[in-house]
Design goal:
The protein has helices spanning 13-24, 26-33, 64-68, 86-95, 105-122, 138-145, 160-172, 176-185, 194-197, 200-214, 233-241, 303-321, 362-372, 403-413, and strands at 2-9, 35-43, 60-61, 73-78, 99-102, 126-127, 151-157, 224-225, 244-255, 258-269, 281-288, 292-299, 339-340, 347-357, 377-382, 391-398, 401-402, 419-428. It has 432 residues and is of the alpha/beta class. The protein has three domains: 3-134 and 304-320, NAD(P)-binding Rossmann-like Domain (Rossmann fold), CATH 3.40.50; 139-299, 2-Layer Sandwich (Dihydrodipicolinate Reductase, domain 2), CATH 3.30.360.10; 345-428, ACT domain (Alpha-Beta Plaits, 2-Layer Sandwich). It is elongated and about 80 Å long. The N and C termini lie far apart (54 Å). The relative contact order is 0.13. The protein binds NADP nicotinamide-adenine-dinucleotide phosphate (NAP) and L-homoserine. Residues 134, 159-161, 188-190, 196, 201, 300-301 line the site of L-homoserine (HSE).
Length: 432
């Protein structure tokens, strides 16, 4: 049987998962790919680091050139993360006609064009299933299984860390900081967890997914982004009162000839299937014009689930022919030009939580401003005073309205003396 040598760049959470799967399922992988996979080298930053996985010492290196200059290594598995030196190592490897498997969404969303072009020129494969939604085979599904469809809408919970945090806050009343620490310990979070909690990670992933789903080049900045750091247990409780649940939702839909692309905390009906996606699970909900509604669900982060997607990408290269004959073409995701809509142009329902001085007439002043801006209110909740404090929480939920009208109203409401703070504004998605 043909033996194929591969190298891992990185032996952290994902690298460990890849190694363990190759040990655990070596025979299945060999039968399915027709090749025996041998890990020939593993690049790390610090060889003396204590690791949760045991690998033969002689495989570990800190010198990338040892891997690059070994012509017997045919596949490079980049699971180190970050932009540099990952980009440089991938470009150099492609130059040497080595196939690439990567889990690096930040790199692909930023330099995907350059890397895919280079892979095409060198006639090698660049696979990236693990870059979006961990173990869920969503890239393969969009690229292969859904090609008969025009995709109309895509909604995703595509960051495991934030979903883990929001689920624990909602179901167990846990504290944000403690749950984030737990997500880091479990290997869900990025090296810099700001990327998760401020929504950057989901923004990169939505740029990749929407490029594929809508056949157009989507840049990172085309995707509007907000993170979850302003969400408090109060917002979660109010959402519950309204029959809603808060998720960091990635939304891509084509309306009036424009693509709407956004990642932000979103209140969704507690009865929607996405509301029941908890823990580090991810889900991608797609509406195609032929297939109708589809939902993909699975672990969005963690060593083995992500490793599962990485190893499948390795197998797909082995099956395609590692020696480059019969190579499957690298995806072209720039079939059409699509205009990208502005966040101000969206129409949504909104939840607004404020803190106001409890005096006669305040509610009237606020609702009058909303009325003048054409924003119709659906519900208002005022929570009674706590002890003798004068300030109370006032929550407003609107009917469908344009974001620019809502923002105009909020800006004016802020200036009322009795309005102490606009604590939060969260969009509500009905999936209509
Ligand atoms: P990680 O735990 O931080 O591991 C990174 C590994 O890369 C470490 O082994 C590190 O070496 C090595 N490394 C980093 N910079 C290096 C450098 N300059 N030279 C040599 N080695 C270097 O990261 P991870 O969680 O496995 O994530 C890896 C990639 O997969 C990222 O792109 C991430 O976005 C993506 N991803 C992660 C998950 C997940 O669940 N964690 C899921 C999907 C995709 P040392 O061990 O010596 O420090
Ligand atoms: N940090 C990422 C997450 C890893 O939490 O979803 C998976 O891409």
């Amino acid at each position: 049987m043909k033996k194929v040598k591969i190298a891992l760049l990185g032996l952290g959470n994902v690298g460990r998962g890849v190694w363990n799967i190759l040990q655990m399922n070596g025979e299945e992988i060999m039968k399915r790919s027709g090749c025996q996979v041998e890990v020939a080298k593993i690049l790390v930053r610090d060889p003396s680091k204590a690791r949760a996985v045991k690998v033969p010492e002689e495989l570990i290196t800190t010198n990338f050139d040892e891997i690059l200059n070994d012509d017997s290594i045919k596949i490079i598995v980049e699971v180190m993360g970050g932009i540099e030196p990952a980009r440089e190592y991938i470009l150099k490897s492609l130059n040497k006609k080595k196939h690439i498997v990567t889990a690096n969404k930040m790199l692909l969303a930023t330099y995907g064009d350059e890397l895919f072009k280079k892979a095409d020129e060198e006639e090698v494969m660049l696979n990236y299933e693990a870059s979006v939604a961990g173990g869920i085979p969503i890239i393969q599904a969009i690229n292969e299984s859904l090609t008969a469809n025009k995709i109309e809408k895509l909604y995703g919970i595509i960051n495991g860390t934030t979903n883990f945090i929001l689920s624990k806050m909602e179901l167990e009343g846990s504290d944000f900081e403690n749950v984030l620490k737990e997500a880091q310990e479990k290997g869900y979070a990025e090296a810099d967890p700001t990327s998760d909690i401020e929504g950057f990670d989901a923004q990169y992933k939505l740029a990749i997914l929407s490029s594929l789903a809508f056949g157009t080049k989507v840049k990172i900045d085309d995707v509007y982004r907000e993170g979850i750091t302003k969400i408090t247990s109060k917002d979660i409780r109010y959402a519950k009162d309204f029959g809603l649940v808060i998720k960091l939702l990635a939304i891509a839909k084509e309306t009036d000839g424009k693509l709407q692309l956004r990642v932000h905390p979103t209140m969704i009906p507690a009865t929607h299937p996405l509301a029941n996606v908890h823990d580090s699970f991810n889900a991608v909900f797609i509406k195609g014009n032929a297939v109708d509604d589809l939902m993909f669900y699975g672990r969005g982060a963690g060593d083995l689930p992500t490793g599962s997607a990485v190893v499948a990408d390795i197998v797909s290269i082995l099956r395609s022919d590692v020696d480059t004959e019969n190579r499957l073409p690298v995806e072209k995701n720039n079939l059409w030009h699509k205009e990208i809509g502005e966040i101000n142009d969206i129409t949504s329902r909104y939840y607004i939580r404020t803190t106001v001085t409890d005096r006669p007439g305040v509610l009237g002043e606020i609702t009058a401003i909303f009325g003048r801006h054409g924003v119709s209110l659906r519900s208002v909740i005022q929570r009674g005073r706590i002890k003798n404090e004068e300030e109370v929480g006032l929550v407003l939920v609107t009917h469908y309205t344009e974001e620019k009208q809502l923002q105009g109203a909020i800006n004016e409401v802020k200036d009322i003396d009795a309005v102490k703070e606009i604590n939060n504004m969260i969009r509500i998605e009905d999936f209509n």
